Amino acid sequence: MRVTIIGGGILGTAHAVEAVRRGHTVVHLERETEARGATVRNFGLVWVSGRSTAELDAALRSRELWQELGAEIPGIGFRAAGSITLLRTDAEVAVAREAVDRGDADHRGFTLLHPEQVRALNPALRGTFLGGLHCARDAVVESRQALPAIREYLMGTGRYTFLPGVEARSVDGLTVRDDRGERHGADLVVVCAGAAHAGLVRELAGDLPVRRVRLQMMQTEPLGEALTTAIADADSFRYYPGFAGPALDALRRNEPQDPVAADGHMQLLCVQRLHGGLTIGDTHEYDEPFAFDVSTQPYAYLAARVEEFLGGPLPAIRQRWAGVYSQCTDPHQLVCRTSPEDNVWVVTGPGGRGMTLGPAIAEHTADLIGM
After folding, report:
1. In 3-state terms, what secondary structure has residue 86?
2. 74: CB partners within 8 A, 6+ apart
3. Between 20 and 30 A from 36 (CA), which of 11, 130, 209, 292?
4. Is 172 helix (H, G, I), strand (E, B) or coil?
5. Is the C-alpha dihedral spanning 185, 191, 197, 202 positive or negative?
6. Which stretches does DSSP call E strand in 64-114?
7. pLDDT tens digit string along 298-330?
8. Mind listing the domains of the chain with CATH numbers?
9. Which strands form 183-185's sheet, in the order they lie side by side?
10. What is the distance between the alpha carbons of residues 189 and 158, in angstroms, rounded to a whole number?
């Protein structure tokens, strides 16, 4: 088939990979000269930790697909690094212990570590904590270089064309008209427009059960040593459904979240880039209109938390940024996937799970379509 894909972020690119792998020819439109949305403004984490039971198999399948892609395309920077969620209180330890005692703990790769085991696994962690929940299934890719590397690989097949700086304006039948007046005929159109819910997406699919979420993150200069795993704080337990249970209920009841963290719907996630710097975040804002500036208080809070775990000062902050992603509000769906016309599909709303689940979502779409 001839496949036209609209949107150059992780979802659009993952769908392009799936189409090319299945023998089809892809024309890929991206309105910017390079993807600039949530796809490149994230941690690059393939985050199995805490996924709901319904999402777990998809997350594990996606990690498998990422590992396969990383072996074919070294520029993706795939590392099976795992993660450690660091525990500061007895109540947080109780949530972790409950997680490792569940029947799916091995499936998730969970192990509860004592402080000395944490430091043996990740020697950069010299600070204060009572232990850590290790997830061996978590992984990392380089979010800012993965998509260009994948596109270069796809171009080498001779069946992939990337058109940057080209915005799709309409879909008439199976012909996409762009803002330069060009028409792209296809047998299948897949629209992965990210956080753009209006315009063409609304015209094709109407009002979908999605919302936009804003985040703030930062990146440091090189740490000077290896942070061998991704790290998180136990505030992440409060936001991931896989940790739900009596111990988490007790944590919420007896240990309210720090006011700064609660106000920003914050959890600490931290991963080391290949150049040695640390990507640190993040906050969540749900009510639009979003602020156009960034707030300093969340950055200070997150930096202090990382320093607590490292047992020393962070390197200088090199960059700060904000981003917006699309989140499906239906708890029973990973994404909003709709086919308003025959062979015109709209796929959006993976939330903060886009980098984790992108390859598996694309594989599922291709199976649904019968590609």
Report:
1. strand
2. 149
3. 209
4. strand
5. positive
6. 83-87, 110-113
7. 999 999 999 999 999 999 999 999 999 999 999
8. 1-59+143-209+333-371 (3.50.50.60), 83-136+210-328 (3.30.9.10)
9. 168-172, 175-178, 183-185
10. 19
